[in-house]
Design goal:
By secondary structure, the chain is of the alpha+beta class. It has one domain (about 5-70). The chain is built from two helices and four strands. The relative contact order is 0.16.
């Protein structure tokens, strides 16, 4: 789909639907009183989860949705960052 005039339009439609599906999982982090679970910029996506179990649940939903829209995740460009901050408040929905 690259290099076509409507590519950005279709891509933004797919990403919007993907982000909506991720919000529906109700998995995410409370950062300064605001709920976050994904941050997107262009074709980059950052997934935010509070626990390992939540990560698996989130990734399951992620892969189901990208499979439905025939999108792929390049695991060669995928990075996992683990940070343990004992003062972070975890809120379950």
């Amino acid at each position: 789909m690259e290099r076509r005039v409507l590519s950005p339009v279709w891509f933004s439609r797919y990403i919007r639907d993907l982000l909506s599906a991720l919000v529906d999982t109700l998995v995410g982090c409370n950062v300064g009183g605001t709920f976050y679970n994904a941050v997107a910029y262009a074709d980059d996506l950052v997934l935010l989860v509070p626990l390992w179990a939540a990560l698996q649940r989130f990734l399951n939903a992620f892969y189901v949705h990208i499979d439905e829209i025939d999108m792929a995740c390049d695991v060669k460009k995928t990075v996992f960052l683990w940070s343990f901050l004992p003062t972070v408040e975890i809120i379950y929905f």
